[in-house]
Amino acid sequence: MTSQVSKTVLRLEAEDVQTLKDGINLKKHPEDGKCYIIYKGKDKMRACRNQCKHQGGLFIEDIEDSRTVRCTKHYWKLNVATMEYVNPPDSFTQDELEVVLSDTDGSLELLELNPPDPWTAEPREAQELHAGEITLTYITHACMELKAGNKRMMFDPWLTGPAFARGWWLLHEPPSDAMDRLSQADLIYISHMHSDHLSYPTLQRLSMKRPDIPIYVGDTSRPVFWYLEKSGVNLTNVNVVPFGVWQNVDELLRFMILMDGVHPELDTCLIVEYKGHMILNTVDCTRPNNGRLPHGVDVMMSDFAGGASGFPMTFHGGKYTESWKADFIKNERKKLLKYKTQLVKSLQPKIYCPFAGYFTEAHPSDRYIKETNIKNSAADLNQSIRKRCPNILTWTPVPGSVLDLALALHDPSSRSAITEPPNGTKIYKDSWDFDLYLEELKASVSAEIFKCKSWIQYYYNWAGFKGYNLVIRVIETEDDFKPLKGGYDYLVDFLDLSFPDERPERDHAFEEIKNRVNVMRHVILNGQLWDDLYIGYNNRMSRDPDVYHHK
Q: Which UniProt keywords apply (predicted)?
């Protein structure tokens, strides 16, 4: 099998992008003549090949509806705003192309994965399963143990310590034997570099027990283990595998890593197959495999909670009142529940399990975030799915609960299919080792490099980001975001990577960023990602104008 790749099927230059009208745009490739549909909506663009799923007919615009195209063969209709066929109703969804707008030159590219459905290569017939042959044991957050035959596989082990510096802490208490289970696994899959999936405190403990345990990651352009050498964690068997290629564990068990359509440089998802039975784990992917996923898998797992960024909780000024934030968060969570419900309905897995969302802002200094950042409930999502899809078995896991796939497939109503942990088992954490991890952050504050202001120029030149018309003001603060006495307060102009005393007179975008000094200096000292600041709720931001700077 050849590796799955993302290829450009159509490119529009900036002047062509500017001529796109609101609604439906029909475009043809100037060289190969293939046709595409681009839908320009209020908030986003969507695109697909101009080809009906029925018998490959060409679409034309429907004069009755500005969002709909009509097939010239049999008059099937496609709503391009939703990518759902409306005639016949409840039939198909159209396979989408990824729309990528360039920040630098204003061009637009339509991307397609090739091959689109790599799991169909070398198909295997589903064989009969026996009780206990495939089990899933929920550990905590995104960590699940899969037992398939005589092999054990662990997903995304975060068992101890915080994620994103000090912003996220485990909501669930892992089973008491979780670390032993991890060290005895036959292989580990880590989906991406974010620290609630790639947990260095967890891997540090693992490396002391079994440094040569096989770990598998996808071949993302931003390497998952980019920080491994500097971390001091001794893991000697990290395997980077190509996308869309079956990896054989034994004669019955294999897995395949797929890329995310929105963040192919970062995120991945996973298909595991044993004796022809498939388990789909989409983890945090925004658009896993660009929206093309296997239908009717035995088990599907995905995230559900929302709230996994600093927006809008850490923003202030302008529209960012408490009432605006509350309304925005409520609406976003509702949209996420609706999207997940629709995704599960369209894929029709036999069993669905929401996971990868069980974190909390436990530190007392983040009380405001915890009270504001209301997340979705896994039980609410499962209730929504059961209402729309009563034929799908849903599982709301707690640490130590076990799903027996053979029993669940044989009789979904059987109570023996899911084993809950014994009565009295601790489910939720009520204490965290704050001091242990915050002392490490605090130690960075007094590092020698920060005694001289020249570190600022050195650091930003090392980072190398420039040529962008943005000026930021960075203010070091205490935990409560009040300016640190004697802390640094400086400007960076990214257009020419200068460090002015005042904002330039030219028109420019501006952001004021207040960073907790212990996190900021720890990030700088170790060359880590600013995700620890933003996703970890360790800064407060205002911007003028109020636009998102993706770069």
A: 2Fe-2S, Iron, Iron-sulfur, Metal-binding
